[in-house]
Amino acid sequence: MYKRIIPIVLSVVLLAPGYSFAVHPDVHSWSNEEIALIRSLWLGSLHPLPDDPSNAYDTDTQAIAFGKKLFADSRLSANGKVSCATCHIPDKTFTDNLPVAHGMDDTTRRSMPLAGMAYSPWLFWDGRTDSLWAQALGPIESPVEHGISRTKCVIIISNHYQQEYEQIFGPIPELDKTYKETARPAPDNPEIQSQWEAVSVEDRKAITLLYANIGKAIAAFVRTIVHEASPFDEYAEALFNGDIDRAKTVLTADQAFGLKLFISKAKCINCHNGPLFTNNDFHNVGVPARKGYDPDMGRAEGINLVQANEFNCLGRLSDAGPDDCAELKYIDTDTEKYHGAFKTPSLRNVADRPPYMHAGQLKNLHEVLKFYQNEARKRSAPGNNGFGTDIVHGDITDEDIDYLIAFLRTLSGPIKSY
Amino acid sequence: MQLVISAFMLFALAGCAVQGMQDHSHHHAGHETHFEPHYSESLFKVTENKLFSVEMLLKQGNLTVGSNGVDIIIHGQGNKDVEDATIMVTPWMPEHGHGVREESVVTERGAGLYSVDNVNLTMAGLWELTVVISAAGKKDQAVFSFPGVKLERMAGHNGKHASHAAHGGHGKPRHEINLAKSVLSERKLFQVSYAASPATVPLNRIHTWEIGLQDKEGKPVTGATIKVDGDMPEHGHGLPTKPKVTKEKRPGLYIIEGMKFTMPGWWTVTFYLDTEQGTDSVTFNLDLK
User: Fold this and answer.
1) Which residues pair with B259 in a beta bridge?
2) Mean pLDDT computed over B79-95
3) CB-based contacts of B198: which residues, under 8 Å, 6+ apart?
C-alpha cells in the first residue's frame, strides 16, 4: 500500500501550483541544447533577405519607392477608398484588427501580416501564389478587395505615374478607347470575360505585362518590411554572451519559463520554428470554420491555384531562370493531406494583432492557447467536415498558458520598412 | 532522457505482460482449455471466445514508432500448437480512430510460431494490435494494448528478420539513431551515400541532395530509377515537397532536387532503388535541429 501512496503524494507536490515557483529560481539557466534552440529562434540567425529570382526589380530602389506609393494609393480601387494599406496598416504591424479582411466587401480570411514575408515561399493563408508580386496582384482584381481590373490599372498608371513607371519598366501601352475599363480575365463572370476577350491578343499581353510590373514594384516595397529585435532577441543575445544578470533584466522569470515551455513540452517550436517563428508550411490545426462560413479547404485548394496561377514562378511573366522555382517544381500535390490546412503564421509581434487564426475565429491569445489545450487534440473539428488535425501540443496546463502568453509578448519588436 | 524513456517503456511492457498473465488465470475456468505460455517474458492473451491463446514476443524488446517485428505463438485446444493458421495483425490507434496503411507481413515458421514483420506504427501514443486467427474453420481474436508507444531511437531502422527471436532473442533497445550518411541498402545489394547541399541539412529551406550508389564491389551503379520518400515517424507525416531525381551527374551519382524539412526532430528519408542489378531500398535517419 505504501508503494502506491508515495508516488501519488510526490506527484501532488510536484504538480501543485507552487511547482512553478520551485522552477523559477533556475529558470534563466539553460542547457546547451536549449541554447541551440534559442539561437535557432533568435533574429540574428535569420539569413539575408532573399532576392526573388522571379522579380527582376525587387532590389531596384526606384521600384521600391514606386511600390511604396502604389501600396498606399487608394485610387487603385473601385470606390477610390481601398489601398493595400487599408488592410495592411503600417501602424498595426501591416495587418488590421478585423476577423476577416474588408476591402470593397468582406473577404473570407484574416489579413496576413507582411513583415518578413519575403522569406516565405508561399503567400496567402493557402499559399496560392509563390511570390510577393503574384500575391500583390490577387487582391487588386478581387471584387471584394480592390475591385478593379488590370485594364483600369493601365489607365491609373498612365494618368498618375507615367514617368515613374516608364523609368523603371519602359513605355506604357496605349489602349484602344473602345476597351472597357473593367476588362480582365474572369472565367466566373461571362460579361467581364467577354470584355476581356474583346481586347486584342497583343493588348491583352501588354496590359498583363504592366499589371505584372506594378505587382513587382509593390513586392519590391513589401520585401523591405522586416522585423527588428524584440526583448526575446535581446534576452537571447545576453545568454549567448553569458550575461545572466543582463538577461534577467530583459525577461521576467515567468516569460523565461514560457520560453522553456515553448521549446519543450508545449511543442510550439515544431511548427513555429526558425527566427521568424514559422516553418511557412501548411497544417490543419482543427480550428472550426468561422461562424456562418463554409468549411475552408485551405492549402488543398491553394495547391491547384498556385500551379494554375499565370503569375507563378514558371509563368511567362516570371523573370526566373531554368534552375529557379524549386518550390513550385517540387510542390507536394497531395491535396488530401492538406484539407483544411493553412500556413503557419509568424509569431513575431503576435501579441499586437488579435484576432487570430485564418478567419479571426479566436479573439485573443488566451483563446488560442485554450484551443490548443482542448480542441486541437480532437481528430476532427465541428464545422470542418471532419478534416484531420495534425497538430499536437503537449499536455499544457492553465498555468502553462499564462507563461506561454507572457513569453509570446516578448516577441514584439519594431517593424522596419523602406 | 533517453534512458528515462526506455525505462518507462520496459516498465509499461512489463505491465502488459503481467496483465496478460492475469487474463489467462481469470479465464481458467470450467472445461475450457488451460492455455499456458512458453516464455516468461512474453505477452500472453487468450482470444475473446477462448478458442486460442496468443503469445507475443516483441523482436526489438518493445514496440516503437516505425517498423516493428513480433513473433506470435498460437495454441489451440488442449494447449497444442496451431499450424496452418491465417494470422492477421492490425495496428490501431484507439484515441485517434485510425490504423495504418501498410499491412503486416506474416510468415509461418512451424510449430505454432508465426513471424510478423512490418508492423508499422506511424506515431507515438497508445496503440492496439489486434491479432485475428483463422484455423481449421475457427476464427477468434485477441487485442494487445501498448500504452505510450514512443520513439525508440533504433540504430538502422530496417525490419530485421530475427528468426530465432522466439527462442529468447530479446533484442536490446539501442538509444542512438544511426545518422550515418553512407549505409548498406536493406537487401545489402548496394552501398548508398548522400550529401546535402548545404552540407548541414537546413530547416525550412528547399535544397539538393546527391546520392552515391555503388555495388558490393564498389563500382558505380548507373541508370538507376530512384524514388524518394520521407517521413517523420513521431508525427506520421511525410515531406512537404515531392523531391525528384533530376539527373545522373556522373556514373552512380544522382542529383535529387526538392528536398525540404519543416520540423525539427527525427526524419527518415527512404530511397527506392530500381537498377539492372535488382531492386532495393535504403533509409537514412536525420536528426534536424
Assistant:
1) B207
2) 86
3) B207
Residues of A in contact with B241 (CB under 8 A): 327, 330-332
> Could you please report the per-residue DSSP string of A122-136?
SBTTTT-BSSHHHHH
Q: Indicate the number of domains in chain B.
A: 2
The model's pTM is 0.73
Range of the domain at B49: 2-167
Put simply, the answer to whether A330 touches B206 (Cβ < 8 Å) is: yes
Chain A contact set for B260 (CB, 8 A) = 330
pLDDT in tens, A136-181: 999 999 999 999 999 999 999 999 999 999 999 999 999 999 999 9
A221: helix, strand or coil: helix
Which of A270, A279, A329 lies nearest to residue B204, judging by beta carbons?
A279
Nearest CA in chain A to B260: A327
Residue B97's Cα: distance from chain center in Å? 20
In this predicted structure, what is the pLDDT of residue B131?
A: 93
Which value does ipTM take for this structure?
0.85
Domains of chain A as residue ranges with CATH: 21-48+228-298+339-416 (1.10.760.10), 61-226 (1.10.760.10)
Q: Which residue of A has its CA nearest to B232?
A: A270
Name the band, by pLDDT with cuts 50, 70 and 90, for residue B31.
Answer: low
Q: What is the dihedral of CA A207, A210, A212, A218, to 10 degrees?
A: -140
- The answer to whether residues B83 and B174 touch, using CB atoms and an 8 Å cutoff, is no
In this prediction, residues B251-276 reach a mean pLDDT of 94
Q: Which residues in chain A have Cβ-Cβ distances shorter than 8 Å to B209?
A: none
Return the number of CB contacts < 8 Å for A and B.
63
Backbone angles phi, psi at A383, to 5 degrees: 75, 5
